[in-house]
Amino acid sequence: MAADALAIIPGAVLRNLADKLYEKRKNAALEIEGIIKQLSTAGEHDKIAAVIGLLTSDFAMSPQANHRKQGGLIGLAAVTVGLTSEAAQHLELIVPPVLNAFLDQDSRVRYYACEALYNIAKVVRGDFIIYFNKIFDALCKLSADSDANVQSAAHLLDRLVKDIVTESDQFSIEEFIPLLRERMNVLNPYVRQFLVGWITVLDSVPDIDMLGFLPDFLDGLFNMLSDNSHEIRQQADAALSEFLQEIKNSPNVDYGRMAEILVRRAGSDDEFTRLTSITWINEFVKLGGEQLVPYYADILGAILPCISDEEEKIRVVARETNEELRAMKSDQTEGFDIGAILIIAERELNSEHEATRIEALHWFSTLLLRNRTEFLGYLEGIFEPLLNALSDPSDAVVLLVLEVHARIAEEPHHFHHLVSYLIHTFHNNHVLLERRGALIVRRLCVLLGAEKVYREFSTILEKEGDLDFASTMVQALNLILLTSAELAELRSLLKKSLVDSRGKDLFLSLYPSWCHSPMATISLCLLAQAYNHASSVIQSLGEEDINVKFLVQLDKLIRLLETPVFAYLRLQLLEPGKHTWLLKTLYGLLMLLPQQSAAFKILRTRLKTVPFSENLKRTSSANPYSQILQVTEDGNRNQDTPNYSAINFLFRLQQFESMQQQHRDHLKNQLQSRKSASATVLTQVRMSCYYIQGQSWRHVANISAFDY
């Protein structure tokens, strides 16, 4: 076949085709073009194939000088031009050696390969499509060529190929997409521009459905949004904007696959990528409907962190999307996975950002309201994290946590569990009790009812084994009871303890646990206007009970007596003859206070204002306390309320004394344990001195005696 070709083409033409000078090679190519035209007209295609074979083997793929290769490429292009309309049947021989030349190490060879393929493409047009994937692959590499001239030639060829593809009805998008997908994560900026250009061009062709294949290359486009080149970012953004607009106008969109990509990209370190992702998610939530139900959890996982984003635009879109998502009503029959959403909400409870934690709690409330049965099925796994959230540094978060707990606690067993766990948490975290105890208890009282909450606390604390903690907890609850506006109704009910069955029942419910603290017990009696019993409690106090803690609590009570909460009590002092037990109680408290304390002066000043009547002023008028004692001997005049006997106060006093005896014994045991520990340490010191110094036991004994 080579011999046939040599007979067809003159030797001088072949020599000029391999010449170093471009003009000679060009003229040789023109002569070859003329020869091919004659052969084509004569229908001698075998001879044409022989010429192509010669140009391929001896020139285009020659291992000799590069100008010989260049001549071969020009010759192949000339053959195609000479064949004109009949070139298609020889393309399988012409195109492969040209494509192979794109890989040549010499940039001039690559340049002439671009030129040759350009000329070939101009002739064959649509017939060229069968080689599109290979040509696309070659152009993708040439777009990033190190030689500027090669890049320029590749761009010209690229534009021509795009024109051919857009006008062809033989282009297969299905075969092209895998090729595109493989290259979408390339980092080279030139390749990225090349790819975005092709995506934009193909999307503009009405007969090519690029939107249907968007999930295959969407991630790559989002990846380009963080490119260092501003131009590439703009091109990628423009392409994404166009696709988003198409999605809005299209009735059939695969939201699911794209949602997964958007969720990943929403966590990008690049601000612009996050904003674009959240914007897309926002539109998907509005448009996707039931298609997105199985992806709610993933979408929520992307939205919640963005609610606390540093960029305001992202925060605004994320909040809007979150509201849209929460407003949608779905059930498990549509693939709604409440468990997955609860996992996301629980995870975001640990977010360092307050706004995200708040929105996570809103989700708990929403799910509890709409899907209560399903929610409670997952309660075991989320109850403890919700309780731990009560230690959150944000008051807003704590209040929302309490709202969630209040909704959970509508069932009695959940309510008991909540209060028990709160007490357990306060026991292990005294700082939380000090800083947040009042806030938590007050809010629970508002949400669940003060009487219900206090009764439950009292029932549990009555059986508390740690007496020190029980005393501390009761003191805290008592202070909240005496000071909080939210508990005004509870205080009003307690004031009726001696005349109303509900008040009496509440008093009897609180009393056993309040016995853990003498001052809390006295305060409860003052609220209930059980002044006779308050005086008895004071009289029962022993030396061990009146310690620093007791005096601190007493100081607080005296100051509270001057607040509006105890205004009724102060007004009762206007009738000392009717409320003599009240006077005795107050004087009893006065006698317990150190005379130099501020509380002593406050209470003494208050008692000096009491208007004693003439029948109280007896010979020992200088001692008003003795006057009270004398008057109280008359049982008919000393009843604070008409139904005082409705409560068995003798039994209550025994109950109080029994509890206080437990506290005294507990204190003694603590002191003995400390002494035992000190003795053990001292013994160890003695033994160490003996063995280390090698002294006699007598010497050690002398040292010990000296130490004592």
Q: What is the 3D form? A: rod-shaped
Low-confidence stretches: 615-642, 695-708
State the separation between the terminal residues, measured CA to CA: 123 Å
Number of strands: 0
| Rounded mean pLDDT score | 87
The helix content is: over 70%
> Which oligomerization state do the chains in this entry correspond to?
single chain
Largest sheet: none
- Content-based structural category: mainly alpha
Written overview of the protein:
By secondary structure, the chain is mostly helical. It is built from 37 helices and no strands. It has helices spanning 2-8, 11-17, 22-42, 45-60, 66-83, 91-101, 107-124, 132-142, 148-167, 173-183, 189-203, 214-224, 230-249, 255-265, 271-288, 296-306, 312-327, 338-348, 354-370, 372-377, 379-388, 395-408, 412-428, 430-448, 450-462, 467-483, 488-495, 501-514, 518-528, 531-540, 548-560, 567-572, 580-592, 598-608, 624-631, 649-693, 697-707. Helix 18 packs antiparallel against helix 19 and helix 30 (531-540) runs parallel beside helix 36 (649-693). It is rod-shaped.
